[in-house]
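A further point concerns the way the authors explain their paired sequence and structure data. For illustration, here is how one protein appears when written out as sequence plus structure tokens:
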Amino acid sequence: MYALVDCNSFFCSVEKVFHPGLAGKPVVVLSNNDGCIVALTPEAKAVGLRRGDPIFKVRHIVDQCHVAVFSTNMYLYAAMSKRVTSILRKSVCHVENYSIDESFCDLQGYDDHFDLEGMMRGIARKIKLWTDIPVSVGVAPTKTLAKMGSKFAKQYAGYHGVCMIDSDDKRRKALRLFDLADVWGIGRGTLERLNYYGISTPLEFADKSASWVKARFTKPGQQTWRELNGEPCIDTAEVARKKTICTSRSFGNMVGGLDSLKAAVATFAGSCANKLRGEGSGATSVTVFLCSNRFRDDLEQYGNAASARLLTPTSDTMEITNAALSILARIFRKGIMYKKAGVIVGDIVSISPLQANLFDPIANRPQRARLMRAMDELNHRYGLKTLRLAVEGEDKQPWKVRCEHRSPNYLTNINEILTIRV
């Protein structure tokens, strides 16, 4: 059996932890540059707000209903996610983080000694007591069914936070009631194909024969079908490993100078490299793209992208940044006011073991790997980007995103620690 622990309205829940006066009130969290709503509470949905709404279009609702607005603060959310994961790891031996607000727990063997539903309900209560983050839990024989169970637990209060799918009757009932478009592993293309074949519910898909599914769907579709039928076969570690990693931002203010663009691209390249090291991977291709503001008809429009290949898979910040800056020099056009840029690293593979290249221009890779580990340790201890390349520039730059409603980094910055007045 597997359990999927999903934090409810996670970004908003974290903000409410540090602003207890917001309990029961509408709360929204905005995207980069405070553009669109990316997370909201049920109370915010009740007043007519929806995920993806541009904030300027719904400002009247925000003002009339006294909606609390926050800018995205990933440092704070990641710190709270780590605390939730820590509680899970102390309660269950095998825990796998799937995303910042979701974790899979392998409950194999626990059913011999515990009531799984009661056990997970106790863990959910512990998370709420220790972090004040509400969670919904789905327990089922496969990870796909467990994700479905967590959504039922979130939607219906009668489950008291935990929905367990532990019999064939419960499985078929869940598949009959669940929205096909929300099934984990069914994307837009797969959904269109299923609808073409007259399938409108997960149960109708699960009831198809193995030969029928094999003749019409590739491996991911077949795996989803098997999981819906109670056969675990999806390796989420493999799913979580991305084929590409992209870091991009719309600038807070348009920039036209090459130096500002270099700082932005170097920052994005460093973030990509950090993500690669976090998952033990390396990339062999680097892409950089630029574009102007398409909403400004009074300005000259321009957009371009280019790529470069690396001889050896790498997660070295300096190597990836050098490649990105070389690409930037090729595609930069003087006189353009740029609104967005980004870096994409691709052809990602596991970096251990690493296949060396006879013509590798970097001769001291072991030493540079130790340097990257030291940099990561310092940034982990003192805050992200405490130690960075000089080309990334200072903290306050025109291209930095706007975050006028950002909460302080209460858990990761000693200068922004929570102050209580008594």
In short: The chain is about 40% helix and 20% strand. The chain has a mean pLDDT of 88. Residues 358 and 385 are 33 Å apart (CA to CA). The two ends are 48 Å apart (CA to CA).
